[in-house]
Amino acid sequence: EDAPQLSPTWNNMGSIYLRQGNTELALEYHQRALNIQLKSPSPDLPSIISYSNNIGGVYLKLERYDEALVHFKRALQIEVQTLPKNHPELAGTYHRIGGVYFRQNN
């Protein structure tokens, strides 16, 4: 149930629940996917980035901005360490973080 190969399944279930408007279950499944990767002896960094951004997106939808920032910043930290400086993923994550600050009037 917590095998690393199942994390994409849990993440996809989280996305389905989010589309259905069930943010509680969306968070539960996205977090489950993330926790599997974080506990893995060989975590998949692109998955951690994706799952962190997904969780941040759910928190953003719930207007829980501080929690959204925690997850977006985790994604950014990994991206900065692993991607080229001009990689488009960085722009997307900076945009998400900027969107949170905008909503917070910062």
TrEMBL record:
Q: Which InterPro entries match?
A: TPR-like_helical_dom_sf, TPR_rpt
- Keyword Repeat assigned to the entry: answer is yes
What species does this protein belong to?
Adineta ricciae (Rotifer)
Question: Positions of the TPR repeats?
Answer: 7-40, 49-82
Q: Which Pfam families match?
A: TPR_12
Which PROSITE patterns does this one have? TPR (PS50005)
Transmembrane annotation, as ranges: none
Protein name per Swiss-Prot or TrEMBL: Kinesin light chain
Q: What SMART domains does the database record attribute to this sequence?
A: TPR
Identify the keywords attached in UniProt to this record, alphabetized: Repeat, TPR repeat
